[in-house]
Amino acid sequence: MSTFPVSRPRRLRRTAALRRLAAETALHPSDLVLPMFVKEGPTGGRAEPEPVPSMPGVVQHTRDSLRKAAHEAADAGVGGIILFGIPAVKDGRGSAADDPDGIVQRALRDLAADVGDATVVMADLCLDEYTDHGHCGMLTADGSVDNDATLRRYGRIAVAQAEAGAHVVAPSGMMDGQVGAIRSALDEAGHGSVVILAYSAKYSSAFYGPFRDAAECAPRFGDRSGYQQDPANSDEALREVLLDLGEGADMVMVKPAMAYLDVVRRVADAVHVPVGAYQVSGEYAMVEAAAANGWLDRDRVIMETLTGIRRAGADFVLTYWAAEVASRLR
Ligand code: PBG
User: Fold this and answer.
1) CB-CB contact of 207 with 78 (8 Å)
2) For residue 22, which of 12, 78, 142, 325 is within the disulfide window of CB 3.0 to 4.6 Å?
């Protein structure tokens, strides 16, 4: 009689085919959403896409290079594209954010026409890329962010983005009541079918560092800890998610991803809407930098991080590797 245990987990790991059969989590191109940056060119001058030094492989697109890259991403089968705009001129109220001729609205019209049938076109909805002070909202005289004045701006931006063809608007400013304000603005303007993806649990994170170079939006003074969440908390994330759903969010998101996988899991267990996770700029930069030094196997680490985020419960992942990984999976 055998003295070994009857249960031998290694049996299911013996061949690649057995491992594939037993796998609980799979990645599909349609689970991946590609964040893209488009920058307004100099008036009259011919712009070139500009590399983002802290995010090797990521560029600030021109309208033309954006169209080409969006086609490639859609051909690779990504689930969506989310657009961030960098206007040539910034001011106190972020006027370019809802200008129908602003860079994002122009680029959204290009994308909706070019790839709008093949993939989901999303617009990040915030003010920090458009304000000269770099905060996500309107400021009061003493320099604090005025929640309710900001909501009125967000409503107008949502309508401008919807009119430019965005299928999804994604408010990322963490103002109280932002989802409700955006939902009513959209509905009143006849855009009842535009989806709201709420960045519900967005933490005040140092992992956004490289993004602030890419989007040229580092705050001029102070930081975002008065509106973004404290990394110490996860009950608060659930409160934010439930508030957003009550205000009409169609999908919710946790951000960043890798340092917050417990939050992804709690949210996925608590709600029955699609849950996204944003693998942010700093997560991308860490892996690229280590790989460039020969310290990590880049391709395996990328797949492992994305599988981990999906395993934690994310239905889809925003990642700067979306197009590359989608084509690898096809
Ligand atoms: C705000 C916004 C930020 C990111 C997405 N939307 C930056 C911030 O809050 O400072 C970060 C994304 C990333 O780091 O990849 N509009």
Assistant:
1) no
2) 12
Domain holding 226, by residue range, is 26-329
Which tens digit of pLDDT belongs to each residue from 37-77?
999 987 655 679 999 999 999 999 999 999 999 999 999 99
255 in catalytic set:
yes
- The verdict on residue 10 lying in a domain is no
Q: Give domain status of residue 13, yes or no.
A: no
Tell whether 159 is covered by a domain.
yes
What is the radius of gyration, based on Cα positions, of the chain? 20
Ligand 1 pocket at CB < 6 A: 124, 126, 128, 172, 208, 211-212, 224, 280-281
Ligand 1 atom 16, closest CA:
126
Residue 1 reports pLDDT greater than 70? no
Nearest CA to ligand 1 atom 11: 208
How many distinct structural domains can be found in the chain?
1
Token pair of 180 as six digits: 């409700």
**Cβ distance 107 to 38 under 8 Å?**
yes
Ligand 1 midpoint to CA 29 (Å): 23
